[in-house]
Amino acid sequence: MKKQMKAVLGLSVLGAGLGGCAATGLTPEAYEITKAECQATVTHLSNTEIEFDGLVKSSHAWAVFPGEFSGINYFVGGGGSDGLIYNNSGEVLGYSRHARINLGLGVFGQYADFVIFFPNEEALNAFQEGNWSVGGEAAWGILGLAASGQQSFTETHEFVSDPRSGGGAGVFLTFDNFSYNDIDTAMSE
């Protein structure tokens, strides 16, 4: 019982720490690298995912997160990445850091690009507030090929992902936190 309490306490501290990862401290060099990675992700998804261009056109805004590692090892896992948020004209609105905790069963890891689409101003504003969201994921992969299905239980965003590689299998709950700052604030702190 003591080991379980320590694990729960450890996860709580980790979650609080990850939730406090502010989207600040973006240097001009890091911004240019992130922007180039985001553009490469958008170009790739536009060429490979049928629904992608339609979602871009119909969305109020979208967030691009290139190259995120996420996984689970037996019962606990996590992931994270940095990304940029764009308005429907393609202009950069802000910078975001994603932190994730995975709880479930499996041994799985994947490296993937993903984009979150915000259908309206209300959805974008909710994202910018930076609250935790809860979801679920089932995933599998072998020899570098991976597939995963993800569903948020607390948010109403469209989501497009393209795993670059992965391996293993798992079914787990996801606890995601996205911190956000407008681009000028992110680069000034």
Which residue ranges are poorly predicted, with pLDDT under 50 across at least 5 consecutive positions? 4-20
Number of strands: 5
Beta-strand content bin: over 45%
Total of helices: 5
Radius of gyration: 16 Å
Shape annotation: globular
Describe the structure.
With about 190 residues, the protein is α+β, with helices and mostly antiparallel strands. It has one domain (about 1-189). It has helices at about 1-20, 30-50, 50-60, 120-130, 185-189, and strands spanning about 60-85, 90-120, 130-140, 145-150, 160-180. The chain is globular, with a radius of gyration of 16 Å. Residues about 5-20 have low confidence and may be disordered.
Please tag this protein with its features.
5 strands, five-stranded antiparallel beta sheet, alpha+beta, 189 residues, 52% strand
Topology diagram in text:
Blueprint lengths: L1 H18 L8 H21 L3 H7 L2 E27 L4 E27 L2 H8 L3 E11 L2 E8 L5 E25 H6 L1
Antiparallel strand pairs: 1-2, 2-5, 3-4, 3-5
Summarize the entry for a quick read.
By secondary structure, this protein is an alpha+beta fold. The chain contains five helices and five strands.
